Amino acid sequence: MQDGKYIAERIRELRKNAGLDVNTVGEGVGRSGKTVSAWETGRNSPSPEMLITICKFFGVSISYFYPPDVSDNESPATLPRDVATLVDLCSKLNPEQIDILVMTARNFVAANEKYGEGDKRDVEGAGLALTVD
Is residue 74, in this structure, part of any structural domain at all? Predict the structure, then answer.
């Protein structure tokens, strides 16, 4: 199943299990009921940032929205430890912190494209100096 369709089904499932209508969910996550309906039908998908907001609204982990990858032997794949840690940390951030994180990540991607895979000097040259002691 495609991730978008799976996410759509999971949003609808959460809403129905909570006994809420699309307008109430929309108000709770800062979007319209029409937008929630579009997510549930798969016409649109929430952004990663919005998906975290939805997780907080319903009190679920981000992993709720992603099906396990199943190989031929039917054992579920797991996220690399660093990625799983990052996903867990992001689910605990408030919206302002998420905005800052997304902006910083985009700046790092832009710096990587401009300056290469780089080291600390490249990051500093891109104006993204970090102090790590």
Answer: no
Number of domains in the chain: 2
What is the full per-residue pLDDT of the chain (133 aa) written as tens digits? 456 788 899 999 999 999 999 999 999 999 999 999 999 998 998 988 898 899 889 988 887 887 765 444 444 445 567 777 777 777 787 878 877 877 777 777 776 676 666 555 655 655 555 544 4
Q: State pTM to two decimals.
A: 0.54
Query: Are 57 and 29 spatial neighbours (Cβ–Cβ below 8 Å)?
Result: yes
Place of tokens 């970090």: 130
Q: In which residue are the tokens 């975290």 written?
A: 52
CB 12 within 8 A of CB 18: no
Domain that holds residue 30: 3-65
Structure tokens at 70: 């199943």
Residues near 56 by beta carbon (within 8 Å), at least 6 away in sequence:
91
